[in-house]
Give the backbone structure.
Amino acid sequence: MPTDGSNLRPGEFEITDLEEKLWRQVHPIWVHEGRVTSQLFSPTPKDSGELSVTRASVVTAEAAHQHHTEVVGLKSIGVYCVEVAEVQEVGLSAIDDSQVDDGAERPPGHAFVDFKAVPSAKQQKRRASALRDKAEKRGWQHGPTS
């Protein structure tokens, strides 16, 4: 569901290239019995409805993974992805926030899938599961690493 732009902060813009891939880092606890869980595409409370991704038009999956693990120091065993069209198919928007000047340091090509308008945890989980299913069909884009 494309945004009208009125809820965007200065420096944010909606990603409109429907074929652009959005990289999502896979934390090892999100893999159970060889399958990635829907937690991969579920924002946590600290995310405030903004699920972090990085743009394939700016950075490779490998470079995004390297930045996430080596520069930021967070855990990831690899990278999955969804396309902007798939994000829109489940009623969400992809927002580039890499140019927001709020003092926060963002990875190159940082963006987010906007869950802020999703009315309930149940709806959020349903959309996260749909995105996981779409990403799972594509498989690992980088990794998995041990």
